[in-house]
Amino acid sequence: QVQLVESGGGLVQAGGSLRLSCAASGRTFSSLSMGWFRQAPGKEREFIARISWSGGSTYYADSMKGRFAISRDNAKNTVYLQMNSLKPEDTAVYYCAAAHGLPLWDYWGQGTQVTVSS
Predict the structure, then answer these.
(1) pLDDT in tens, the chain (118 residues)
(2) Which whole-number Å values give the CA distances from 61 to 49, 64, 70, in the listed order?
């Protein structure tokens, strides 16, 4: 079993940056693919990015390329999402997820709120 805890959300002005963290419990973190998703009020959950177990491969949704960057530190059991040039439309609850084998995401965190003011 893997537990995921997101942190780093908050209120930021448009144009600002935030770095989200997702800390994972368990010994299997380094074998898991990790991903970030978000869900805005009244909208479906949206894929942002994923990263392979080694960190050697990343994949982004087209709309997220350029402003968001996913990374991981297996020594710290943590995955990160660096978000730059934030816009009000980036306001959402951001979730991290873990997968033993894609495309199925096996574990989810409870989310962290990001609010971007104009």
Answers:
(1) 899 999 999 999 999 999 999 999 987 888 999 999 999 999 999 999 999 999 899 999 999 999 999 999 999 999 999 999 999 999 999 999 999 988 999 999 999 999 999 9
(2) 6, 5, 12
